[in-house]
Amino acid sequence: MKMKMKMGLLNSAACVVLVVVSQLFVVSLGDYINRVSEAYLSALGDPGMKNPNVRVALEAWNFCNEVGTEAPNMGSPRLADCADLSCPLITDPIDRAPLGVKSDCVIHHRVNESDNNLRAGDKFPVSDFKPYTNPDLYATEKELYLASLCEVNDSSSDPWQFWMIMLKNGNFDKNTTLCPENGKPVSRIVTDRNFPCFGEGCMNQPLVYHNYSRLVSYGDQNLSITGGFYGSYDLDADLGKGIGNNSYFSASWQKNLSTGSWIFSQRLTTSAKYPWLMLYLRSDATEGPNGGYHYDGRGIMRKLPVSPKFKVRLRLDVKQGGGSNSQFYLLDIGSCWKNNGKPCDSNVLTDVTRYSEMIINPATTNWCRPDNLVSCPPYHVTETGNRIYRNETSRFPYAAYHLYCAPGNAKYLEKPYDICDPYSNPQAQELVQILPHPEWSVHGYPEKKGDGWIGDPRTWELDVGALSSRLYFYQDPGTEPAKRVWSSLNVGTEIYVSQPGETAEWTVSEFDVLVPEGVGDNGTMPY
């Protein structure tokens, strides 16, 4: 059943897409490449978010980064909005319109409603893609199919596909075996960890509505596109009557008329049944597995950043924080390597997802303390490369860490230790969550609580490569240090188990990832 909603639901968090027509003709690929210095260039297909056309996709995951079961009357939870504007130039100087552009512009959709409505078992319009009946496998194939429709090819560079909006439901039903344990299938979940779940079906996929990009006019000189995604995890929600007590999410994009950057606006609201929700804007690799995802995916990052030499630039404006349990990530970086330091190969029993996240919600405290060493990494590395062990209470910067947890398949952990949640990834995971602190501010990160929070919008230039090279990640003793290649960089929030109605709202713009000139697709440097 086709489901449509009125544009009026796209509220302040679901703004319109504004495209200044003149930009369509003055921006070249060379203009896209935004250099920080002679040594750095953009790794993205859409540097600084200045591409004039729409390239956005949406993915939704259950607790263990799979689909499980598709939502009723909805397609597989992968959608895309990829739209190109075409505006004929005027050649007659007497009849020249403002900005030298005719008003009879047209929009070309690369993805239509029938593409987005595809669900498990449906045949793809192209025989190259397999119509799996398994919802998990079908979603991965659908992402590849949508990417093939959206792909941008340029003779002087590698192809790219889209920015990714990611949704995740934190409910986990321990009475099911939908999620493996550290990558291992189990016949029964046995754990003393607590997870939210209202009962059977709590791990459902969301209702997702899509207002397809369309042309609108603003005055005599500007043409615009408007569109967006929004919806709810509450399957009985009637958003036509308003949000009410339901969970809610929205994502939209608009043009900043002064900078030329897209502004991505997002909103996330919890409900009684869905107290733990996540919503991110992702910059993912254009091929191969992405952070937390062991299938072949698509994205916008044509060159993969490698520690210690890469930077991230973005502008973030937090409107609402999402409550005290909102782990708002200025930046979340994701990668994968084995405990012996070797690259991942999609073997979920030995691969390990590695995350590092800078949380800027000032309500987030440091669980890493002298009286709680289990939540601290074994040691901290200073800017000068010195190690400070966590039991050196007069020197260790406990306030710089919210939480550290170790991978569940590690064999040589140093006590005391805590294992990361073994169910919320398709394989074991390791997590380093950091907080604003002078230790990190030397790399452009927030220095103290409140920096960059509500009422303090900022443009950040983060030396992510330098900081990430200092972080402790587990490796088996005596193994060659892993090459830290990052396949996913995200901005957004994880509203951890909270009261109903907690709302986060924010905008991201001018996002760019900068790598040394000459970096290859897999983060390799020419020699």
UniProtKB/TrEMBL annotation:
Source organism of the structure: Rosa chinensis
InterPro entries cross-referenced by the UniProt entry: DUF7705
Domain DUF7705: 42-515
The protein's name in its UniProt record: DUF7705 domain-containing protein
Superkingdom in the source lineage: Eukaryota
